[in-house]
Amino acid sequence: MVPEELKRCIAVGSSPEALAAIHRPGAAAALWERSPLSRFQHWIDSLPPEQLPRARVILRPKAVCDALIEITRFCGTPEGPENNMLIEDASALALIFSDVMNCPYLQLRLDVVQTNACRKFHVDAVTARLICTYRGTGTQYGISGDGSDPTKVMTVPTGSPVILRGTRWPEAPLSGLLHRSPPIAGTGETRLLLVLDPVEDPAQASEVAYLH
Length: 212
Hints:
Blueprint: H1 4-7, E1 10-13, E2 29-32, H2 38-46, E3 55-59, H3 64-75, H4 81-101, E4 105-113, E5 123-124, E6 128-135, E7 140-143, E8 154-155, E9 162-165, E10 177-180, E11 191-199, E12 210-211
Parallel strand pairs: 1-2
Antiparallel strand pairs: 2-9, 3-4, 4-11, 5-12, 6-9, 6-11, 7-8, 7-10
Helix pairs in contact: 2-4, 3-4
């Protein structure tokens, strides 16, 4: 449940349509709250980290499904119904995000994280970014008026996609909503994240940066 003080800048819903609310004036984030199927979660949580899919590609949204089939095969992710669920869900999120952002291409990342990557609260230097944590602790977020760490930190539920506005979103000023990857170094936790960024021209695309 999102606290009252965050509701003014975070749109939350229980259906895919909730993600389109990122265009609502003043909405710094849009969250689709959902619970993963228990059998899928058990499967993804039980995989050895070396079998989790990893990738960074730029492609058209309709090509995501075929690309993920090849990526999971290359990474040795076990075939089966749960792997199909992962591919189908990530492909569906790619189509939803591309429709919400009206972009012809996407940069897709599948990140396997076992360190304190991006542990500092920040705003990404993109127009908007979709993040869905399939395994491990979800993205953490909170409000800061001066750029310091938020005093109240919330965590996106595992399996719930969230779209976060970045510094290149045309509406200004920024809301003060910051986010980070949860610090997990030394805990033995392994996270699997799907990250989607809009791309207008693949020929001009470069490494996506973020601002601390």
